[in-house]
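Worked example 2:
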Amino acid sequence: MRSRLKLITAVVLLILVAGVLTTPVWKPAAKRVKWFVVATNIYQDALRRSGLRHDQISQPDFAALPDAVLSSYLDRINTTFHNYQAYAGVKENAFRGARVLEVGPGETLGVALRFLGSGAREVVAVDKFVPLQTSPFHQRLYKQLMDQLTPDERQNIADAVSVDHGVRFNPRRVTYIYGQGMEEAGQSLAAQPFDLIVSNAVLEEVYDVDRMLETLDGVLKPGGRQVHMIDMRDYGMFSKHGFHPLEFLTIPDGIYRYMVEASGQPNRHLLDYYRSKMTALGYRTTVFRTWVVGGTSPLGQYPTELKYGRDYSDANLQLVRSIRGRLLPRYRGLSDDDLLTAGILIVADKPPRTGNVQAAVTR
């Protein structure tokens, strides 16, 4: 009880300090001190924990976005969808007739439209932080996205979305659930399980990932598939201020929780966690590596194992080893390979029911 009281007192003091440090006079100097960065993140998280703010950190103002960034949004949508296609190991037309769950779509439903264009019957999107966006920017974005599609793909989404007068989605084809985590939304979704579940840079933002993955398992059909892109970096929390890219793995758990839980920042689960968790749930799982610590861009062809000279160098290895002694004990004992891995793509197949029921998503 006394130790918990001390922790709460420390957190409160850090919040008060952060309120001062985020003023223009102190902010530039504060960013260069580790515990000032901690205090600032606790302050931002406290605003969301208390309900004074509801947005995710760094969420853009869509009304102010210029058309010049449309191409980058389209590239992100298409890259994400192509990753789902290429690394999920599915055949052409595999999504036809499928019911798809997209977890955490964020600011656009472009990926959902790509699934519908590829023949999916319905897409349900669940996002805790970002409400459905129907701004003029999104209207132009979806118009350009549809212009890039083939005639067959455009026909497949003709009744799913209208962009002639604003943005309107057909609720029979696209459902958007806002303000709930999957843990809450899953209770109503379990009655109609999904063929495929996907997410991009979402699972790392969920604090109770055990519960999340168990919920996703509960809403997936036997024989169905999950595909998750997971960014295990620090979102720039420390690294953008010049700290080591693994500095966030040195912060004690009791303090770190108050930095990230309400604001959708990294939960610090690494490759070993996801590998063991999916195995415990009974999935047949393939893990692709997408980033390495110290890398400046994603790996080329995502490998299932890192290879020296191809995926990382002595510089990457030395970067990891230089901080190992300061890491929390559970990270300190990990292999160089696991610590080097800063991003993954998981493809996990749920066992079919007894009787060799064919999976809804074609392998």
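The chain has a mean pLDDT of 89. The longest strand covers residues 220-231.
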